[in-house]
Structures are given as structure tokens and as C-alpha cells.
Amino acid sequence: MSTLMDLSAVEQARLIRNGEVSPLEMVEASIQAIEARNPGLNAVVLKRYARARDEARRVDRAAPFAGVPLLVKDFLAEVEGTPLTEGSRFLRGYVSPADSELVARYRRAGFIIVGKTNTPEFASKPTTEPELFGATGNPWNPAYSAGGSSGGSASAVGARMAAAAHANDGGGSIRCPAAWCGVVGLKPTRGRNPLGPAYGDMGAGLICEHVVTRTVLDSAAILDCTAGPDAGAPYYAPAHGGPFAAEIGVDPGRLRIGFGAAPVFRAEVHPECVRAVQTVAQRCAALGHHVEEASPTADAGRFGEVFTTIWLAMVAWAIRDWARRLGRTPRPEDFELHTWKMFTLDETRRPSDLFLAIQDVQRMAREIAPFFATYDVWLTPTTTQPPQPNGWFDFDPAHPKQATQRIGDVPKFTALANITGQPAISLPLHWTADGLPVGVQLTGRYGDEATILKLAAQLEAEMPWIGSVPAVVR
Q1: Dihedral pair phi/psi, residue 440, rounded to 5°
Q2: Is the pTM of this model over 0.85?
């Protein structure tokens, strides 16, 4: 079990392709790892073992990832015949009637879905502590948060229950948990991966789909299997000239890198996060890149109101959409207090407020764009804080605004790429003295995953993290 689950997805696929391990044996190794490690983490909330075993026996051996286990986040992506809750009591009893397009592409690539991972209710927080399933622990210290909203996926991959897990990102939900769990999290360019058939545009283009992995190559190789618009997609990312995986190991050349330790949208940054980005900036300079302190600019004063308007609208839309699909009337007891509060706050806003907010974020994207005409990459911390204990985001009556501020501040570095649609990747390049991971983020030009993948792979070779093993695996 430990030997096979220590391998990357690409390495697992190679073993299966060479006949050294069967798809069923690889799936059994993942199941054993989940059974051994999940009780202390609560990362996997739905097990799909019987169907996974059956699918492993019938998988197309010619597929690039034939027989490789995959976990799917319990949000947005639907797996035929499998419950979907999105972390909410409101979806009780719902079973997906068909695969979403992304899941269909995972299957065509040969992945075997062994289970689903935990998420906050409607993926609305940067921590994974839903009332429905309970908190997910961080594999480096289970008392700490795994981040969110893809915390279950990041925790499971960090704990080596699978080499890859599906994740999605509307403000940092791939990258923030990747940073806190010590794994790789790429948010692709807007429209690179499909959202259909149920959805086209989500959150005015904020939300995108991909995976968390332990290596840069895995992230690139899986993107090769899923990238491309589906029928009727409202966004179409510029086509890439070849396989993303072929970029790994290619010399990125001398890049112009601007680095910043303060987010464009104003928040206090923990010294460990500052130290992390400064260390990586120095390493990039030693590798021959042109590195200087520089950051894009935008109307930071408007950001909080604008992002809040879109986020409230998105949560309220999700509830109304599910109410329509399920034929149910939303009631307060069906939701967490935080979610219900967002739903009712939405009623205080006018429909035109959303269009004004969309106009403002598009204006911000244009304010930010000139920076990337000068710099190839913006290098920052991924989050404003290192991992924090579970409960750190809870409402405290003595400090009524504290929870809202923390929820809003942690993803301040990541939200920029959701606004602009640009690709960004979080890499586990720093650890605190207590042994907790701190992510560093590379943001690239729109449509240019290639540059950040090349630089990410170069840093992975220079500052390797793959040998760092979390507490739950030792």
C-alpha cells in the first residue's frame, strides 16, 4: 500500500501499463490507504469501493491513466449513481443521474473514482469544516485546518490516499488547501476545463476545475486529459500548442519575475508567508531569472464589496438552483447559519448590483493586465496565513467581525487570478518551524500555463518537496 501510494499518478500509470501492477491492485492500495489514514483526517466522506473494483476490472488499458485511483470533490462535479451533497443537508438523498463532462473525461483517461472528498457547505469557506460531515484535518497536523474549499481533496492527496484528487477554485479553493496541505494546486486559465453540461458560467467566470497532486508533472499530464471546451461553453481558453506535460523539464529561459509579499487587495500577511516568498525569490534570482519586487495595482478599496456581492449571489443562486432541481423549499434548518445568512443577505441587494460588481471586477482585470505585459510571472505567498487550527474561522461573539475578516483575508493573494481568469499554481516550497507547509504561488499570463509549469518544475527540481512526508503517513 505505502509503496504504491507514494508514487505519482504518472508513475502509477506506468507500472500498470508495463504489467507490473494490475488496475485492481492499484485500486486496492488506494482503498487500504483510505481505510488506514482517513479515520484521523475525515478527508474522504463517501466511499465508492465496490464500483471502483468493478470499473478497475473493465478499464481500457490503452487509456493514459488506466487503473489510477482518483478522488472527486463532493462539489459541482457529478459522478453517475453516486450521492452529491455539496456539504449541505439540503441535498440529502440526491444521487447524480449522469457524469458531468469533466468526470466523463476522467473516465476516458482511465481514472478509477474510489470516493468523494469533504468540502464546506457550497464550497463557501477557506476551511473544510461542514456541519454535515465534520472537519477535515491537515495531514501534517490533524488538529489544523486542511484549508478550503477543496480541503478534503488536498488532505487526501497529502496523506497519500491517492496521487490526485479533483478540486475546484472560485477564489483560491484549489490553491489555498494545496498550500496548507503541502501539495501542488494549479488553477488553470478560465475556460480551460469544462463545467458542463449543467453549468457554463459560474460566478461570473470565477470558478474553474482541475486537480490537486503531489507533482507538477501530474497536474500537467491530467490537464492534457481534460482541457478543452465542451459544447456551448461560454469561455474558450486559448489553445495550447502541444501537451502541457511536455513543458515539464523544459528550460523556461530567463524570466522576468515580479514578487510581492503584500496582496493587491490589502490584508495583513504572516511573517512565515513573507519569508516563504522571499526565499523563493532569492532562489529564482540564483537560477538566472530577473527578479524584482513589483506587484500589479487595482482598486483595492472596491474589492471587498464587489467580491462579496458576487459571492453572496453565487451562494444564493446555488440554493435556489438546487431548490428548483429538487423541488424543495429552502428552510433555515436545512443549512448552516453562515450559509443561511448569506442567502438572506442576498435579498437586500438589487439584480443590478450583480452587474455593477461584474463590471467592477472586469475593470480590475484590465487594471491588472498591464503588469503581465512587463512580467512573465507574479510570485507571491499563496495565502496570507500559514495553516491555522480547525475552529479558527468560527464565529466568536466577543469579536463579531473576526470570522468574516479571516474568511476574506486568507485567500487575498489567490482571488486575483479568479477575477482575471489567469492561471496560477501553488507549490509547497516552505515549512514552518512546527513542520506545517506554506505555499508559494506563481501567477502567469492569461492562457499561458506553459510558463508557470516550466518554472514550477524548475523549482520542484531545485527545492524538492516530494520526500517530505506528513505525520499521518510516517
Answers
A1: -120, 135
A2: yes
